[in-house]
Design brief:
This protein is 48% helix and 14% strand. The protein is an alpha/beta fold. The protein folds into two domains: 148 residues, NAD(P)-binding Rossmann-like Domain (Rossmann fold), CATH 3.40.50; 98 residues, ProC-like, C-terminal domain (N-(1-d-carboxylethyl)-l-norvaline Dehydrogenase, domain 2, Orthogonal Bundle). The protein is elongated and about 65 Å long. It binds NADP nicotinamide-adenine-dinucleotide phosphate. The site of NADP nicotinamide-adenine-dinucleotide phosphate has 23 residues, from helix 1 and helix 3.
Length: 258
């Protein structure tokens, strides 16, 4: 097997923190680059890794994993010395939109990362792409060191996966947030919903969600829907109405297909 290259993580946010931790667990100590000195010091203290603020210090024998906000990717690629191999972790950034004269790749983990919330890297799907065949192989090898689920994916497939992930995670989590807020307003604990939330997620693991929708919208229970809408206001009311319509439209579509 080829020797593992030196790894540098650029960025000090959620993904940077977890990737650094995953590599450390496999005995690989990355160096971490960032612009924020206090956060770098926290990385040094918590994860015991070397840190650096100067991207110009990156050397050709280093593989860079760019874990920065999507808008910052082109600017940072520009500041990394020419010839250094760079892979970014963004779901929706198209490789073809970035400079063609650089060796670039994608190291996209399809998971939600929050600092301080532990994750098992082995269960995270990684999607890999590169504009250079050798670099792509290197990224596949690297991903397989930390995860059991590693695939190649085009920018378009990765984009579709990311968009679906936004609906499945970001939107669903937002609905949990709205539910928590609504219950708090009525002096009730969000804990009462947790068995229901666990069961919803468990069922999605083995049955198509299209087959197990329940509730007033799918039953076309107009009276209950009207009552619920009257109890809500502002964006919560809009969200309830939009999702109710969406569920009902799906039902109509399914019936049309029968
Ligand atoms: N979080 C997730 O669940 C998740 C999952 C899969 C993929 N991703 C992708 O992974 C990447 C990082 O996401 P994240 O959640 O880790 O973001 P994050 O927690 O918001 O961290 C973003 C990092 O980018 C740095 N940054 C932003 N603009 C910069 C600039 N102009 N120059 C230098 N550094 C800059 C920030 O530095 P400062 O702290 O100094 O501002 C911070 O270290 C994104 O492409 C995201 O789409 C995220």
């Amino acid at each position: 097997m080829k020797e593992i290259p030196k790894i540098a993580i650029v960025g000090t946010g959620n993904v940077a923190f977890h990737l650094t931790h995953f590599f450390i667990e496999e005995g690989i100590i990355p160096s971490v680059f960032g612009r924020n000195k206090p956060t770098l010091l926290a990385f040094e203290k918590e994860l015991n890794v070397p840190t650096n603020q100067e991207l110009s210090a990156l050397t050709l024998d280093t593989l860079v994993l760019l874990c920065v906000s999507d808008q910052a990717i082109p600017e940072i690629i520009d500041r990394v010395p020419n010839g250094v191999r760079i892979a970014y972790t963004s779901g929706s950034t198209d490789l073809r939109s970035l400079p063609k004269d650089r060796v670039l790749g994608v190291f996209y983990p399809l998971q939600t990362f929050s600092k301080g919330v532990e994750l098992d890297a082995r269960e995270i799907p990684f999607f890999i792409e590169s504009n250079d065949a050798e670099f792509e192989k290197e990224l596949l090898t690297l991903a397989r060191i930390i995860s059991n689920i590693v695939h190649k994916a085009s920018s378009m497939d990765r984009y579709h996966l990311h968009l679906a992930a936004v609906m499945s995670n970001n939107f669903v989590n937002h609905l949990f947030h709205l539910s928590e807020k609504y219950l708090q307003e009525h002096q009730l604990s969000f804990d009462y919903l947790k068995p229901l939330i666990r069961e919803t997620i468990r069922k999605a693991g083995f049955i198509s969600p299209s087959l197990i929708q329940t509730g007033p919208a799918i039953r076309n229970d107009h009276e209950i829907i009207a009552k619920h809408l009257a109890s809500l206001s502002g964006s919560e009311k809009e969200v309830y109405a939009v999702l109710t319509r969406s569920i009902q439209n799906t039902k109509e579509k399914n019936q049309d297909e029968l």
